[in-house]
Specification:
326 residues; alpha/beta; 7-stranded parallel sheet; two-stranded parallel sheet; globular
Length: 326
């Protein structure tokens, strides 16, 4: 049996589909569906059983799970970068991960988990995923810190050679609709274009970046799911790894591709960035992908324009069929 936490979420549900496509259905799905529409992400997918996160933790603590668990893919977390409840974030993202990791290692179970590129903070320390760089990082919000704290716990306890962690960069794609303010700019741009014909982007407040020329490393969620499955199949690949395309692109590139996919001329309105956002804004992110490449990762990432075209086609078709989810 495989355990997938956060299995109804954005990356989790696409990973679930990828597992199914590779013949894996013996999956215990863990999530919290209270007050959420993300249950729709489970439609059409196969898994052996579903359990609420709190009930699942009780089974973990009492060591009542079946001994036949082959792997745990731990994607369950609060991913809101604007969450202010630090105690909740540390319990949900840090302590939860520790308990689950200990269970996996004590029972010789493969453990793959989600870290985040948000741990790199403003990027002044670079984007190297070498373990020696972990102590130098300075996260800018409690979400990033809760992820960083778990990475550091693994480092301090000499466990990084026993698990695989993934620092996701800017992930976008199907099944993110339930994330509210945390949805990708592509999703928001699509909605804005349909409603107003234009897209709003933040102005640059640094003279070396023109408006809309701030850069991010955008990666398609379908590619992320393929990498997760590859790690599942290659148990000797351990440590913390960046997961982006390795090529930063501008916000102007991004929304331009959305307009192109909709066969509309670009119309972008640049708006002032709120003061509280300016303090923590990242003007550039780009995954250093050397480590995964050296491990022989065979996956070629979908070019940004192709991925956006595929995603926009999905959004257009799902708008007509409210039960269609990848």
């Amino acid at each position: 049996m495989y355990i997938l936490t956060g299995g109804a979420g954005f990356i989790g549900s696409v990973t679930l589909k990828t597992l199914n496509e590779n013949g894996i259905t013996d999956i215990l799905l863990v999530d919290n569906l209270r007050d959420s529409a993300k249950w729709k992400n489970l439609v059409g997918k196969s898994f052996a059983d579903y359990i609420d996160k709190n009930s699942f933790l009780k089974l973990i603590d009492e060591n009542k799970l079946l001994p036949s668990v082959k792997a745990i893919i731990h994607l369950g977390a609060c991913t809101s970068t604007v969450e202010r409840n630090a105690e909740y974030m540390m319990q949900n993202n840090y302590q939860y991960s520790k308990r689950l990791c200990r269970f996996a290692l004590d029972n010789d179970i493969r453990f793959i988990y989600a870290s985040s590129a948000a741990t790199y903070g403003n990027g002044h320390k670079g984007f190297s995923d070498e373990h020696s760089n972990l102590q130098n990082l300075a996260p800018l919000n409690i979400y990033a810190y809760s992820k960083h704290a778990f990475d550091l716990w693994l480092l301090q306890n000499n466990l990084l050679d026993k698990v695989s962690g993934i620092k996701f960069f800017n992930v976008f794609g199907p099944n993110e609709y339930h994330k509210g303010e945390m949805t990708s700019v592509i999703f928001k741009s699509y909605q804005q274009i349909l409603e107003t014909g234009a897209v709003k982007l933040f102005k640059s407040h640094k003279p070396d970046y023109r408006d809309g020329e701030q850069k991010r490393d955008f990666i398609y969620v379908k590619d992320c799911a393929k990498v997760i499955f590859w790690l599942l199949e290659n148990q000797s690949v351990t440590g913390i790894f960046n997961l982006g395309t390795g090529t930063a692109r501008t916000w102007n590139d991004l929304v331009g591709a959305v307009f192109s996919a909709l066969n509309r001329p670009p119309e972008v309105n640049y708006i002032d960035m709120p003061i509280n956002v300016q303090k923590h804004y990242q003007y550039f992110t780009e995954a250093d992908m050397k480590k995964l490449t050296l491990h022989g990762l065979p996956i070629k990432f979908t070019p940004l324009e192709n991925a956006i075209s595929d995603y926009v086609a999905y959004l257009a078709s799902s708008a007509e069929d409210t039960h269609r989810h990848v």
